[in-house]
Amino acid sequence: MMDISLWAEAEWIAAIAVLVLIVFLAIGAKIAVQSEPEFAGHPKGLYMLFFAEMWERFSYYGMRAILIFYLTQHWLFSDGKSNLIYGAYTSLVYITPVLGGYLADRYLGQRKAVLFGGLLLAIGHTLMAVEGTGGQNDPTINVFWAALAFIIVGSGFLKANISVMVGQLYNLTDVRRDGAYTIFYMGINVGAALGTILVAYLGQHPSFGWGFGFGLAGIGMLLGLIVFVLGKASLRGAGEAPKLLTKGTEYGLYGIGFAAVAVIWALVQYQDVIQTLLAISGVALLGYVLFESFKLPKEPRERMFAILFLISLNPLFWGLFEQAGGSMNLFTDRFVDRAGVPAGIFQSINPIYIILMAPVFAGLWQWLGSKGREPSAPAKFGLALAQMGLANLVLVWGAEAYGIAAMTPVILVFAYYFFATTAELCLSPVGLSAMNRLAPKHLASLIMGAWFYMTAVGNFVAGKIGEATGGHGGEMTKQGLLDIYELFGWIAIGAAVAVLLVSPVVKKWMHLDTLKDTAPVSDGPSLAKAEPAE
Q1: How many beta carbons lie within 10 A of that of residue 395, not counting itself?
Q2: Is residue 38 helix, strand or coil?
């Protein structure tokens, strides 16, 4: 244990993260033991999902914070190739919810899908701790590919379904819905911030190393599973199987999950194949959603058109936003004056900003809504694209003003993430709420899966953009990165103007004034569907 008098900035940041984690655990314990069905105006089930997702995001974002460095420094891939692998991996994380959402909708139910996904994630994060000797000729790299495959498929069963369960706790017309998703989104980012700091600190500290960082991420996932299992009663029957689920069918679905791990293990190693599959399956998925749309009456059909419009904006937004864990992470490591703080820790800036600003945005939307002046969902998406473009341009202009040869001041990294975060808050929680609110009940998880699918396309686009920052030789240069960031900054602002111009039409398609609840939300376990005893 290092003497406290010798602590540098990194040690103090890690210590504060541990203290904050203890505080949140204490709050969670208080909510768990109280007898009242609600806390702070929301059902207890929301907070159970909050803490389960917090631990899952702790593990995922902690691993994400150091993955690009693991690829470049341990497995010795070039900068360009590492960005492409990173983009392919994160894109697959967002594709598999289509499979997980479909199986949950039709057979498994969201709760069991989330539980199975959590088990796969725990296995994957544990395998990430197996380092080997490093380099691409080390056979242990196959364990690394397997770890990524388990995490990818596990995320597929968990991500879309846990978000759907949040919506199932509320009526469609409940004014608390957007606030609930914002609270849930805070849970995501509490876990992301704490996991990023602690995993990056251990993983990039010379006294610990990769195995310690990834091992801590695995422990976080196991804790998330425990929270989810113990909090089943607070869900009030939400997320159960849509019909009687036999053990044979259930275990067969789990078998499909493990088979998918084997397929992904092979697929993640060939990024060009992923690009082709993204194009083919993307057209097929959106075609299927459109096909289902034309079966519906006029208003639900137009709501589906609105959903497709919002989903179509994901690739550009996430293609820029997800530079954070790839090219922006490398930029921070090599070209920013960071006072000795491990570069991975700077990945916590975004989730910390969200924790601070999510209540402000939730209050802002509510205040504007009370005055009839809240921007529509498509208008918020346009604002998000504009702010993401501004984030890029602020970084470029600032870095060039200080000089290409000079180390970039760290304040510009904070400014970049500030605008990226305000952009995210205008798009991501709003999008999650819109998908759940506008989608027909029988397509709820599929639509949420489609949302994550187009986010997956954005992540792969992010990998291609990150690869471009490496130029023809594969090694990133400061000027090369700034040129790419400036180009896409202007593209995002141009797209934002177009979206804002058409947003009134898309708002009409949403038909918010005629949304109706199909059934009231139960105060007890009566929502649960019949199923065999466990």
Answers
A1: 25
A2: strand
Q: Crossing angle for the helix pair 314-321 and 410-438, nearest 10 degrees?
A: 150
399, 364 contact by CB (below 8 A)? no
Using a cut of 0.70, tell me whether the model's pTM lies above it.
yes
CA distance 466 to 274: 16
The one-letter code for the residue type at 405 is A
CA–CA gap between residue 329 and residue 83 (Å, rounded): 10
The partner residues of 42 in beta bridges, in order of sequence, read: 39
Conformational region of residue 112, where left means phi above 0, alpha means psi within -120 to 50, and beta covers everything else? alpha
Strand partners of residue 336: 408
Closest CA to 227 of 62, 51, 58: 51
Q: Going by C-beta distance under 8 Å and a sequence separation of 6 or more, which residues neighbour residue 407?
A: 335, 336, 337
Q: What is the pLDDT of residues 501-516, one digit of tens each?
A: 999 999 999 988 887 7
* Residue corresponding to tokens 């009231």: 520
Bridge partners of 408, per DSSP, are 336
Please give the Cα distance from 221 to 225 (Å, whole number).
6
* Angle between helical axes of 210-230 and 110-127 (0-180°, round to 10): 160
Q: How many residues does the chain have?
A: 534
Find the radius of gyration of the CA atoms of the chain.
22
- Compute the distance between CA of residue 28 and CA of residue 32 in angstroms, rounded to an integer: 6
26 CB-near residues (< 8 Å, 6+ apart): none
Residue with tokens 């059909």: 301
Q: How far apart are CA 240 and CA 250, in angstroms?
A: 13
Q: Which residue has the higher pLDDT, 442 or 291?
A: 291
Distance CA 64, CA 250 (A): 31
Mean pLDDT (the chain, rounded): 87
Residue 533 has pLDDT above 60, yes or no: no
Q: What angle do CA 411, 417, 419 make, to 5 degrees?
A: 105
User: What amino acid is encoded at 397 in this protein?
Assistant: W
- Each residue's pLDDT tens digit, 350-380: 989 988 888 888 889 888 888 888 899 999 9
